[in-house]
Amino acid sequence: xxxxxxxxxxxxxxxxxxxxxxxxxxxxxxxxxxxxxxxxxxxxxxxxxxxxxxxxxxxxxxxxxxxxxxxxxxxxxxxxxxxxxxxxxxxxxxxxxxxxxxxxxxxxxxxxxxxxxxxxxxxxxxxxxxxxxxxxxxxxxxxxxxxxxxxxxxxxxxxxxxxxxxxxxxxxxxxxxxxxxxxxxxxxxxxxxxxxxxxxxxxxxxxxxxxxxxxxxxxxxxxxxxxxxxxxxxxxxxxxxxxxxxxxxxxxxxxxxxxxxxxxxxxx
Length: 268
Hints:
CATH superfamily of the largest domain: Aminoglycoside phosphotransferase (APH), C-terminal lobe
Order of helices and strands: HEEEHEEEHHEEEEHHHHH
Low-confidence stretches: none
Strand content: 15-25%
Helix content: 25-40%
InterPro entries: Kinase-like_dom_sf
Oligomer: single chain
CATH architecture of the largest domain: Alpha-Beta Complex
Number of helices: 9
Protein name: Protein kinase
């Protein structure tokens, strides 16, 4: 453990919420797009602390949005216990939960719990605060504007389903890192899970059998599922082209392409 923080003013900013440190803070692997993610052992905690630099733009917007949505997703996510902000930082203090990243590999004992957690996401209501957060990130990767309309809906979406964001505990699963929740078609989170399963080593047929356990997937229009599979291939190819040395992006392209082939979708 260490008591080092990213700037001299950070510790005073959070002191009223943490009290005195007991064992300092430990960097974590959660929150890859955050400026700070640490587990703080302290007088009033422990807390998982996530922070972004207080600068205009998407990263600041994401942590503000995560704080706003938290009261409505606590059935599946750790609760935000406090929030702090000054001219340098925006900080969220989450309850610390005892869990580990899920294993998505074929044969993993985590798979039923993972699918159950994604299915529960489809049962969350859409709070008023999220009504204007329309999901549009896949729109520019569709074949035409009509396909983008297939992605519209009134479901609250997590939109970052991956092993690091599903934490397995002794008695429950947490869906963490709500950095960019949106409103859209309910099948989108299960569709993202399908590609992640293929990336983890599943055949497309195996991935399909798992995601078919999600109500939102079973009730989806197959045309919409096909359009989303194609858009995902185009999106992943675009991301991989920007960072050709990122092996994980290449792996996601291969998984998305395999999933599209399984669905009988050709992507030029």
